[in-house]
Amino acid sequence: MLKNVLQSSLFFIFIMSVVSCKTEIQKPAVDKNAVIDSTITAFQKTLLQQQIDSVFKKYNFNGSVAVFKDSIPLYQKENGFADFKSRTKIDDNTIFAIGSISKQFTSVLILLQMEQGKLNVQDKVSKYLKEFQNKEYENITIHQLLNHTSGLNTLGGKLMFKSGSNFFYSNDGFNALGKIVETVSGKSFSDNVMELFKKAGMKNSFTSAVFEGTGFAGAYLGNGKTAEKVPDMPKRLGGKEIGLPAGGVLSTIEDLHQWNNALYGGKILQPKTLTTFISKSSERHHQILGKMGYGYGIMLNIGNPIAYFHSGYIKGSPSLNIYYPETKTSVIILSNIADEEKGKSSIFRPHIEVKKITDNLENTLMQLRLKH
Fold it and tell me: What gap in Å lies between CA 259 and CA 319, rounded to an integer?
């Protein structure tokens, strides 16, 4: 795959050289940047179609994948069924459970409360929640819940380590953040997050607690031939096993694209606050995606290309949302079936392969930008 990327890149460099030469020979005024931009876009579309299509075919991927450069769609494809029994096909309006991608909304809600002066991320959680007013949890801060360094695993249990000294991914930590949002705002978590969606221009996103519409992709275990529906979806996402702030949001390809543009385009948080959100404040060794930095409910590539991303998984619904800030590119991968018997590394292979494709493409574009 990498070989194909490099071959395509060399082809692109050749085209760029030809364009440059023609521009020099033909003296009439030509917007060289516009020509280069259109050539780059054509190159991206061709490469993405070839390589992501191969991922769909290789894994018979049941879901939706899209790549947007700012507002320009570079690639979008849907395949398979939202409902295997009725054979309802997935389309670009299909609503998916996005699992832990939800955590970035919770983080942003906390930061918005901070901007309003209602809290500080360095505050102790015990200032807001009675459950943390004990010797075991007394030193845990909001900051440590946001970047999973609190040591908390299950609320009520012993800490995994001294708060602030290590990393341990905690859903209960993010559900506690949701309670803090409710405490300081005086409104339910769902009300807060729905207001956030409206601010971002997201028209088809909900928490599982308030969703009453149609178009939801039911979650399934197994494969296309032996698909077993996960019961009580999406309502079960609001239960103790998961929790709305940790993984209870439902969304679409277009809405997550809208969210990325609004968030990283500075329409949600103030510039200084956004910097805090994306700054590496801990480090995670993900069992599937490998070593990465971690900000506030967002993962970060270590090294190039610069990327902000988060995976999500609740039974039957593996997902990944990526944003490359240097080219303002969103990559969104949503699915609604998972063969858990093969393990999560197998479940996320399509997502990993797409990320490798777009990481390589991003690096190539950055190198070409430096040359031209």
Answer: 15
Q: How far is CA 342 from the centre of its chain?
A: 23
Residue closest to 188 by CA, chosen among 179, 198, 196: 179
Q: What is the pLDDT of residues 275-322, one digit of tens each?
A: 999 999 999 998 888 899 999 999 999 999 999 999 999 999 999 999
DSSP letters spanning 54-93:
HHHHHHT--EEEEEEETTEEEEEEEESEEETTTTEEP-TT
Reported as half-sphere exposure (CB side, CA atoms, 13 A), residue 90 has a value of: 25
Give 3-state DSSP helix, strand, coil % of the chain, rounded to 5.
45, 20, 35
| Coil, strand or helix at 165 | coil
One DSSP character per residue, 305-350 reads SP-EEEEEEETTEEEEEEEETTTTEEEEEEESEE-GGG-HHHHTHH
- Torsion 338-339-344-346 (CA) sign: negative
Q: Look over the chain and give the mean of its residue pLDDT values, rounded to a whole number.
A: 92
Cα(81)–Cα(61) distance, integer angstroms:
10
| Structure-token pair, residue 98 | 């996005």
One-letter amino acid at 95 equals I
| Band of pLDDT at residue 43, cut at 50, 70 and 90 | confident
Burial of 165 (0-12, 13-18, 19+ CB in 10 A): exposed
Is residue 299 within 8 Å of 292, Cβ to Cβ? yes
| Residue 133 backbone phi and psi in degrees, to 5 | -90, 65
pTM for this predicted structure: 0.92
Q: What is the mean pLDDT of residues 348-369?
A: 93
Label residue 3 exposed, middle or buried (CB < 10 Å: 0-12, 13-18, 19+). Answer: exposed
Three-state DSSP at 175 gives helix
